[in-house]
Design a protein that fits this description.
single chain, alpha+beta, Alpha-Beta Plaits, seven-stranded mixed β-sheet, five-stranded antiparallel β-sheet, elongated
């Protein structure tokens, strides 16, 4: 018996010892041999990782007004398990359908979604309708959730308070100005990918770099206070300031919408720029789209036609031929020629008015937009080599270098004599609007071709380092003297209210240079008889250009209208508002007394209003105002409310007590304006000379403040330094004063008339027809292209 007990004890002890050895071995293997492996797995369960999303950089206009920014957004998610437990499936479906407008069938699939094992999912996002919604919709979802919770609270049997509707905080791209400059700015989609415009071109600078945080947590997912933490801060994207002026952009878009309402064109593009720097002040396209809801628009609406589309410019292109002819000394405004038609090796190019206007001067030929005049200048007087050289120097058939994607190079075909002749009048060539603007700006600014700029500066929010983009001169194309002369010739195209094709762009008190254009579109075989591209380009003031503006309208639905009727009035409206906004007052000596009376404006009351309110009150009246002081509200205004003033007169807004105010820099102001400011400040004015303020000096004597100013006449030479002499022009040499010829006198041949048909002023012409199609520019160019078989004539990028 004792022996059995001993054997059993030994056996049990042996088994226990063996088990202990196995356990020790296993512990050793797990803890030592595979210790690192299991430690990493445990660490994964203890640790948590979160992505810290970088904020995308903001985009502003030149004055700091925000155009694109990151904003708080919310994504709706549902919990099918919780909804099923609460037995509120139908209530959730109906409520979210009403708020998000998502089909009930799709909501039902989400709310009842199950895994393969038959269990409900715990979370499903409601896409796309519930993805990154704004606060207004999110508040409605919250209200629905609270309402369902109240219903559950009343039903005590269920004992459930989770209704299975969640809102996740996120960021989305928001465009506070809605439609403003939409094609220029572009958009970022819901997935955070930049798709077009500035957003896409500068995506690397704007998007930033996400950060992350790693930390240890307990079983309840609460961070351990003594746990290890890894933190990498997010790097926010850089902020971009554009060159555009939101006010001018608004003026442009408002005018283009009026054209859309009246003529329903295929598209419209307008570009406004500072000719001295080629900073883009506005760039607009119609049809437009709202980047906040880009999915509601056609993809074609995203196109920025200003850089991606090619058009035959028509007679606006004659500005280049004129500038080249003046520079080479072959344009004599008083020289006469026989208008009507000209034949080039069997091909006949006609003026839009059949038979022409008789023998007229070349200056009158410019006013009529005579094709014959410009064929003579470009083909006969300049010749193919020089004409091509100048067109190349003006930047055609090459990219301008603007900081936007998709820019086209355009086409200049001058292989055959007829192509040289038609190129001189803007037919058989294909250009982008931005090329046209840059070239006309070179004519306006003293002859310098500038690279277009859309970015003013880029700022890194981390280092506060700002990179400023300076104006860049590409080359000198023509002399300052030629620039001045061409400006004065083009001014007469607008100011001559009898035969000037640009007369509808005339503005009392301002010197405007401009040119209309109407080009027939290529249909692949020749030129269409009822599809046109109409346009107007010009700049002001002629003596010191501050803004160049180009408007091109593709296929207005009325084939009888031209650039003079469609685009010129819009040009006038935009230019007038822009000049006043820029503080460029009209020269009252140029305004007739009748016009002064018609233009009189009653000054509204703005005293005691906040500055923002005062601005909003004065801006619709087109009144220019000057803010004096650093206060936030208007203490006094001059002239007083109810005063009747001319648009040229400024309204001065006093925002601080007089004794605290500093005298502003009044260089360039008239004596009247200087007197008004010093009266407002309670300072004695001591003027010397006549004209405009060139210097000032403040003095205090016996406790009284006084200001001495020196005035001097302002001449055209101030605008273009070193220019002297007067233009060789004589408007009195016109042989014909006919304005709008009868429709029966229009040529039936291929024509691109800037004035349109008979009621529009057919004298504004770009009639480049060939009587013999074998050498027709249209036909010879149909096979030429920018890159392989593409038609260069008025082709828009779809």
């Amino acid at each position: 018996m004792k022996k059995r007990i001993k054997l059993r004890t030994l056996a049990f002890g042996g088994i226990m010892t063996l088990l202990f050895l196995v356990l020790i071995s296993r512990i050793y293997f797990v803890q030592v041999v595979e210790g690192a492996k299991w430690y990493e797995k445990a660490k994964q369960r203890w640790s948590a990782q979160e992505t810290l999303v970088a904020k995308r950089g903001t985009v502003t206009d030149r004055d700091g007004n925000v155009i694109a920014m990151d904003a708080r957004a919310y994504t709706v998610a549902v919990n099918p398990q919780a909804i099923n437990d609460a037995e509120i499936t139908e209530e959730v479906i109906a409520g979210l359908h009403k708020i998000l407008n998502k089909p009930e069938s799709e909501l039902r699939k989400l709310v009842t979604a199950k895994r393969e094992d038959g269990t409900f999912y715990s979370q499903r996002e409601v896409r796309q309708e519930g993805y990154k919604i704004d606060k207004a919709l999110a508040d409605q979802v919250k209200a629905l959730r609270d309402e369902l919770k109240e219903q559950l609270a009343k039903d005590k049997k269920k004992g459930v308070n989770d209704v299975g509707i969640y809102l996740m905080d996120e960021l989305k791209r928001y465009y506070p100005s809605q439609l403003l400059a939409s094609q220029l700015i572009g958009f970022v989609d819901r997935e955070g990918k930049a798709k077009s415009g500035v957003e896409a071109y500068f995506n690397d600078q704007l998007e930033g770099v996400n950060g992350e945080i790693k930390f240890l947590k307990d079983g309840k997912r609460v961070q351990l206070s003594d746990g290890e933490v890894e933190y990498q801060a997010p790097k926010d994207g850089q902020n971009i300031a554009l060159t555009i002026d939101s006010n001018i952009q608004n003026y442009v878009e408002e005018a283009l919408r009026e054209i859309v309402a009246k003529y329903n064109p295929k598209s419209i593009t307008a570009i406004a720029a500072d000719p001295n720097t080629m900073e883009i002040l506005a760039m607009a396209n119609m049809p437009e789209f709202n980047p906040n809801s880009y999915w509601d628009s056609n993809y074609a609406n995203y196109n920025n036609h200003g850089v991606v589309s090619l058009y035959e410019p028509g007679s606006t292109f004659k500005i280049m031929t004129l500038a080249a002819a003046v520079e080479e000394g072959v344009f004599n405004p008083n020289e006469t020629y026989k208008s009507g038609s000209v034949t080039i090796y069997g091909d006949t190019i006609r003026d839009i008015q059949r038979g022409g206007w008789g023998t007229i001067s070349y200056l009158d030929g410019l006013k009529h937009s005579s094709n014959v005049a410009f064929v003579n200048l470009g083909y006969q007087k300049l010749g193919a080599e020089k004409l091509r050289d100048y067109l190349t120097k003006f930047g055609f058939a090459q990219k301008t270098g603007i900081q936007l994607s998709g820019e086209r190079t355009g086409v200049i075909n001058m292989q055959y004599p007829i192509e040289v002749a038609t190129a001189a009048i803007g037919q058989g060539v294909a250009v982008t609007p931005i090329q046209q603007v840059a070239a006309v700006a070179a004519v306006a600014n003293g002859g310098k071709l500038m690279q277009p700029q859309i970015i003013k500066s880029i700022t890194d929010p981390t280092t506060n380092k700002t990179t400023v983009f300076e104006p860049k001169v590409v080359r000198q194309v023509i002399s300052k003297e030629t620039s001045r002369k061409v400006g004065e010739y083009l001014e007469q195209v607008v100011s001559d209210q009898v035969i000037g094709t640009g007369r509808r762009a005339f503005i009392e008190g301002y010197r405007i240079a401009g040119k209309t254009g109407t080009a027939e579109k290529s249909d692949g075989k020749g030129y269409s008889e009822d599809k046109f591209v109409v346009s107007f380009v010009g700049y002001a003031p002629v003596e010191n250009p501050k803004i160049v503006l180009y408007i091109v309208v593709d296929e207005p639905d009325d084939s009888t209208v031209g650039g003079g009727l469609v685009a010129a009035p819009a040009f006038r409206e935009i230019m007038l508002k822009s000049l006043r906004h820029m503080g460029i007052m009209p020269d009252t000596s140029l305004i007739k007394e009748e016009a002064k009376k018609e233009a009189a404006i009653v000054v509204p009351p703005v005293t005691d209003l906040l500055l923002a309110q005062a601005k909003a009150t004065l801006s619709p009246k087109n009144l220019t105002f000057e803010i004096i002081g650093n206060g936030k509200s208007v203490l006094q205004q001059i002239p007083a409310a109810g005063s009747v003033v001319n648009p040229s007169q400024r309204v001065y807004l006093l925002t601080e007590q007089r004794d605290k105010l500093k005298v502003p820099d009044m260089t360039g102001l008239s004596l009247r304006d200087a007197l008004e400011i010093t009266t407002l400040l309670g300072i004695q004015l001591i003027p010397e000379g006549q004209g405009y303020v060139v210097s000032q000096k403040e003095e205090t004597k016996n406790g009284k403040r006084s200001l001495k100013i020196v005035l001097a006449p302002q001449t055209g030479a101030d605008a273009i330094e070193g220019d002297e002499g007067a233009p060789e022009s004589n408007a009195g040499d016109a042989q014909s004063k006919s304005d709008d010829p009868p429709s029966g006198e229009q040529s039936s041949s291929n024509s691109t008339n800037d004035g349109g048909a008979a009621g529009e002023g057919a004298s504004d012409s770009n009639d480049s027809a060939s009587d013999k199609g074998s050498s027709n520019s249209g036909n010879s160019n149909n096979s030429s292209n920018e890159s392989g078989g593409e038609q260069p004539k008025s082709i828009t990028s779809e």
